[in-house]
Amino acid sequence: MKNYHSMRLFLWLILFFTFVTISFVTSTTAHAEGESYLRDEIEPALQLNTVAIGNESSIDLKSAVVLPADGGRTLYFTVTVTNGSGNKLSFLDYWVKIISASGAEFKAELIPQDKLKKEIPAGQRVDYSFYAPVNDTTLLEELTFRITQWNYMSSELETNLGDIRFPDASSALMAPITSSRTVLIGGMPVDAEVSRWSVQQNDSTLSAKVWLKLTNKGKASIRMPVYQYALRAANGAMYPLENLSDGGSASLLLQPDVTEEWQLKAVHLPLSAASQVWDLFINQTITINNELKLSYPVATLRIPTDSTDAPRLGDSVEYLNPQGTYLLKAEKLSRAPWEDQDILTTDVVISHKQADALPFPIMRAYYELDGGVVVEAKVVQTDRAVGVPPGILVHLQVVAKVPYTYPFAQTKLVIEEKVNANVSEEMAAFKLPPTSIKLPYLTFGESQPITGAGRAAQYAPRELNIYTDGSSNVLEAQVEIVNLEKRSNGIPRLTAFFKTEEDALYPTKIREVKQKLNPQGKALLSFSSKIPKELSTKGLRLVIGESVTEQRLSGADDKADAYINAVEMDLAVLNDSISPSLKDVSFYPYTISLSNIQTWLDNKQLRVNFTYKLSKDSYYETSNEGSKLIIQFTDSNGKVNIDETFYLETAPEEEDKRVTQGEHDYRIVRQDETLLYKIESLKQYKMSIYHEFQGKRKLLASQTMDWFGITK
To answer: Source organism's superkingdom (predicted)?
Structure first.
């Protein structure tokens, strides 16, 4: 019998390979498949009995599990031999038999590495790992682990030392299902954890990603063995995983107290498994011969599929593709009003830690509201960058619209890379906090910055004006914008709404300035809206942000369909004062003065002569589109009203009247033989100055003067 045992040992030695003995665990499936016994992870009172082998020595079961394998099912188990004597103990004298509840015996084989461990030194403990093919219906708790010793004096040539078997109620002995576990690799404890999981549908199949964290808790570095990874569905089906991390596990040196995270990917999973329980298997391949390989389980971890485990605002997420490893972080979520909708906007930054620049991924995104409603979003790059430079944060805005009356409590943002026309790969999924319309608020006098590489600027409101035609009003807010770049730059496009104290929203039209601004150059933009005549401007604010068209910041000729970085800004007190003098009349950025005014009247015509002086704050670029200046003559009884209308500086046609900067003489002439009869008194008349905007007027100044006199 001893020669027989030696022959068996020789056959086992040809299976030698480098293997790290560690604990393993799997999930519970139908027929208790995957339930595992892990002695060190349950209470001492629940641990299975130890078999004494004499001289204060013993054998006990450390771990056991039955798993699917090619052609059937396999039992994997580890026993611990404790040598309590003062001499070395030979394991060649002992063996473990596996017996089913029906009495059938299954042949157990030692792992090739453990066949070299022939002796247990005095006072030491040594682990031995086995595998045994079993029947398709075999359950772990039905098995008996019989410890035997070779005995040449017995007719059976062996002696039964004792059995290790599960009690009838064995569920309490099974290892708890967990997504993290401490295992031994190279003799060092390593914390293994499934930190994240994502799954998405591609046509008729699913693809999935698993993020695996490994932390060396020992005192020395570990060179990771070459492992294979697989997903197991609830029905026991196994699906291979590809390690996307640089170099895979083969080249990784795991340093003490340093965490490494890998991305593992599976494709072509069945749609029917979308909502199932999944487990991650870490396996090591044992090559028996050219035709036969054994995939031995190193560890099994439950995958947390609960969406609450998704990263949140401020968390960084790694994404790997063939170009490199990117880092994505969601920094801020806001909800802003937009006509009859609300805009959801999330600030996202993308970066990397590699030495060379990476190309900018083609990205798409969507929001998932309350776990079911999908709202497509636009990814807007707000920095002027053609790639992602090393060590530089590139900023994005993810923009979507929802009805302003639609309530929702939970929000998830999913960002994907468009791999090709038909396939998208999830880059990151962030769980976002509840949001409401609560925009950043700026008091009058504060400026709002525009950030982003190549587009630094700031803006702030100036004057607030009302123009009227007697039946309705046009409200205009002037906004000053400054170029903070070191080069000349185009003026960023802005979109704005007037917001009342009751949260009513009035969209505005913008009168833009087309010229570029030099460094520190300024422009004056005009935002206007038609409002009810009775609407009060008390508590009125300007909701304003940077314009977006499709998936880019709006250009000069683009019509905005959204905005980002929106804020609420206090407006100036309404400028409704009327000057009693025609000198130094301001309508920013212009100032006009009338002097040397004199009149002449006969039975054929009226002449009004005057000198005007127009000046402008020349540091501002402006647009006068829709603006005119009106100088009005009115006699004392109001029967004669003469308006002289001027364009400001430039006019559509050469013959159109205009006022230009500087001092100029001008004459108003009216031919009308009835004027003498309409003007009943030649004592006084009134001259007024109006600023006209979009066909409506604002009275700037009005002064009463004597006929035929000359004003200074």
So the answer is: Bacteria
Q: Point out the residues of the chain with pLDDT beneath 70.
A: 1-34, 202-203, 246-251, 274-275, 288-289, 292, 306-310, 436-437, 680
**C-alpha triplet 654, 658, 663: angle, nearest 5°:** 125
* Nearest Cα to Cα of residue 549 among 535, 567, 563, 537: 563
CA–CA separation, 141 vs 146, rounded Å?
Answer: 14
Q: Is the bond into 589 cis (omega within 30 degrees of 0)? A: yes
* pTM of the model as a whole: 0.64
What number of other Cβ atoms are within 10 A of residue 555's Cβ?
10
pLDDT of residue 647: 96
Identify the bridge partners of residue 351 per DSSP, sorted by sequence position: 327
Per cent of the chain over pLDDT 90 is 46
Q: What radius of gyration, in Å, describes the C-alpha atoms of the chain?
A: 42
In single-letter form, the type of residue at position 103 comes to G
The answer to whether the CB of 569 falls within 8 A of the CB of 442 is yes
Q: How far apart are CA 445 and CA 505, in angstroms?
A: 23
Element (H, E) at 3: helix 2-13
Inter-residue contact 667 to 637 (CB < 8 Å): no
Reduced to 3 states (helix: H, G, I; strand: E, B; else coil), residue 142 is: helix
- Say which residue the tokens 């060092």 belong to: 188
Please name the amino acid found at residue 552.
R
User: How open is the CA angle 388-394-396, to the nearest 5 degrees?
Assistant: 125
CA distance 712 to 565: 52
How many angstroms separate the CA atoms of 98 and 399, rounded?
62
- Among all chains, which residue has been given the structure tokens 């083969």? 250
Task: List domains and CATH numbers for the chain.
Answer: 2-173 (2.60.40.10), 180-305 (2.60.40.10), 309-432 (2.60.40.1240), 441-570 (2.60.40.1240), 585-706 (2.60.40.150)
Phi, psi of 644 (to 5 degrees): -110, 115
Can you name the residues that pair with 148 across neighbouring β-strands? 95, 160
Q: Which runs of E-coded beta strand occur in 352-493? A: 358-359, 363-369, 373-381, 387-388, 394-403, 411-418, 424-432, 441-442, 448-450, 457-468, 473-483
d(CA 433, CA 390): 30
